[in-house]
Amino acid sequence: MKVTLFIPCYIDLFYPQVGQCIVRILEELGHGVVCPESPACCGQPAFNTGYWDETRTVAVKVMERLREAEVVVIPSGSCGAMIKVFYPELFAGTPHEALARELAPRCHEFSAFLVNKLGVTDLGARFPHKVTFHDGCHGLRELDNKQPPRALMAKVRDLELVEMSEAETCCGFGGTFAAKFPMISTAMGEVKCASALETGAEYIVSCDSSCLMHLQGLIDRQRKPIKTLHLAEILVQR
Q1: Counting C-beta atoms within 10 Å of the first and last residue's C-beta, which end of the chain has fewer, N or C?
Q2: Which residues are CB-neighbours of 25 under 8 A, at least 6 positions away?
Q3: Number of domains making up the chain
Q4: Is residue 123 part of a domain?
Q5: 183-209 per-position pLDDT tens digit
Q6: Which domain holds residue 79?
Q7: Does the pLDDT value for residue 120 go beyond 80?
Q8: pLDDT class of 40 with cuts at 50, 70, 90
Q9: Residue 125 belongs to some domain of the structure
């Protein structure tokens, strides 16, 4: 299968190793991978802020670039939900509605692609650490992506998953929400970090680097004994 990898802007700029891990995983599974350099943003920040006309300008470029893709893999629940769920809504009643609806079913969040599309759970990984998992809001609520990451972690040798009580609670990032309401965003993040620390885990794992970026910032400032890691970074450990 030829996989088109859509890399979100924050992974491109801050966490390129996540994209590299995913390329390695897909190629080891025997799939060809292409990663277009542009466009680099799905338009979600503008969409969430209410600037839908501006979002369409960005989103049309994304759809045109992905039009011929056999399958699109996205290492982010939020960006995945934007293209798969919100593009059809964004373009409803416009000349691009048909393209948005045709593209949506070919787009998959990374862990869901492995488990639900390829039927793969065991990648031969080994990670001898205790971890807890954060369910990103879009991946959980828009994509119903609760089980795939856990199915993958269950097959990682020596990994101990300890669920936190606030696993499904928003971390408080929300993109522009964190910039507009920093005090609320910080308070929500602190609830998430406290819940993770209660488990005794060494790592907070998620499918969304944006959430992890927010949480790692709080962890660093408070000097807490826990780190964050994208799921793909665990799946390449040997």
Answers
A1: C
A2: 114, 123, 232, 235, 236
A3: 2
A4: no
A5: 999 999 999 999 999 999 999 999 999
A6: 2-117
A7: yes
A8: confident
A9: no
- Examine the domain organization and report whether 212 and 183 are in the same domain: yes
Domain assignment of residue 109, yes or no: yes
Both 148 and 212 in one domain: the answer is yes
Three-class DSSP labels, 6-35:
CCCHHHHHHCHHHHHHHHHHHHHCCCEEEC
Question: How many Cβ atoms are within 10 Å of 166's Cβ, its own excluded?
Answer: 19
DSSP SS3 for 71: strand
Q: Which residues contact 40 (CB under 8 A, 6 or more apart)?
A: 7, 8, 9, 12
Last residue of a domain, one of 84, 117, 150: 117
Work out the pLDDT band at 153, boundaries 50, 70, 90.
very high
From CA 200, how far away is CA 160, in angstroms rounded? 11
Could you give the CA distance from residue 179 to residue 43 in angstroms, rounded to a whole number? 17
Statement to judge: residues 23 and 87 lie in one domain: yes
**Locate tokens 């990103």: which residue?**
136
